[in-house]
Amino acid sequence: VQLVESGGGLVQPGGSLRLSCVASGFTFSPYRMRWYRQAPGKERELVASTTSGGEYADSVKGRFTISRDNRKNTLYLQMNSLKPEDTAVYYCNGGPNNLWGQGTQVTVSS
């Protein structure tokens, strides 16, 4: 039973990345899933949730899109118009016993 994120990396301001989170060991489709992020020296914050078709932090509204493919047991986060303040480790969360992935680093810098 685990969540495994991928897709992070270094991108210039204004660029895009798509994060993926593959779930295994449990039935993925019934669960609400979320993306969180944690920047250095800051608390972990909720970025997006699959609730009600997508709920977003104010700081990412209009730029990020959460989606899922239940056939592939995969959660996605499409991130556009990236800003330096989006730099953080991004975590996938959800499933039984409130699972967390290991995180994937996103760095936005020129």
Polypeptide structure, described:
0% of the residues lie in helices and 50% in strands. By secondary structure, the chain is an all-beta fold. The strands form two sheets. Strands 2, 4, 5, 6, 9, 10 and 11 form a seven-stranded mixed sheet that branches. Strands 1-3-8-7 form a four-stranded antiparallel sheet, with no helix packed on it. Strand 9 and strand 10 (99-100) form a beta hairpin. It is globular.
Question: Between the first and last Cα atoms, what is the distance in angstroms?
Answer: 38 Å
Q: Helical amount among residues, as a percent range?
A: under 10%
Shape: globular
Model regions low in confidence, pLDDT < 50 over at least 5 residues: none
Largest sheet: 7 strands, mixed
**Total helical elements:** 0
What's the quick description here?
This protein is mainly beta and 110 residues long. It has no helices and 11 strands.
Features:
110 residues; mainly beta; 4-stranded antiparallel β-sheet
